[in-house]
Structures are given as structure tokens and as C-alpha cells.
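okkk here we go again. third time trying to get the calcium ion bound version out, last two times i messed up the smiles copy paste (missing a bracket lol). double checked this time i swear
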Amino acid sequence: MGLRSTDNLGNQGHTMTKTAFREMLQKVDSNGDGKISTKELREALRELGLNYNWFRMWWNAWGAVSHVDLNRNKHVDGDREIERLIDYAQKKWGINITN
Ligand SMILES: [Ca+2]
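finally!!
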């Protein structure tokens, strides 16, 4: 915790619905366990069109997981964590997520 990266991928203006965001998460959940790993979240960033170098992708994915992971299982899982991820994506990744 305590990771408050000021890193912003700068993809301002990208808008999607919460449903689309959740569907995107399901899509990157390659092993279908309902939990999003750091690796899967990197895929999610790519799906969102945030293509940066390997380190920045890794850093952003890791930062997101460590920020939203309430039960500390190193994965984004469950509604509360996904809601936090949606919030995080808006603040840190500049994605506008609507209801
Ligand atoms: Ca978790």
C-alpha cells in the first residue's frame, strides 16, 4: 500500500461504460478464475489502448492491484475491488467510465 503513483498514462478522453469495463476484465481473465492478476491487468491496459513500454505497463498494473486489493490476495477479485479498480482507472489512467 501507500503506492500513490503520479504516473498518468495520459490517455485522456477515453470513455466507456462500467459494463464494458467489466466485460473487458472478463476478456483478459485468461484462466477464467474471476480474479485479475497483474499479468492479466497488463492485458487490460492494452485492451484500453494504453500501450507503453514494458516497465510502465508492469508498473501501472502492479500499482493498480496493490491499490485496490482489499483482501491482499494479489488479484483484483470481487465487486468491491472491481469498483475500486474502476475508480482507479478513472483517476490514474484518465479513462472516463460511465454508469
Ligand atoms: Ca483481491
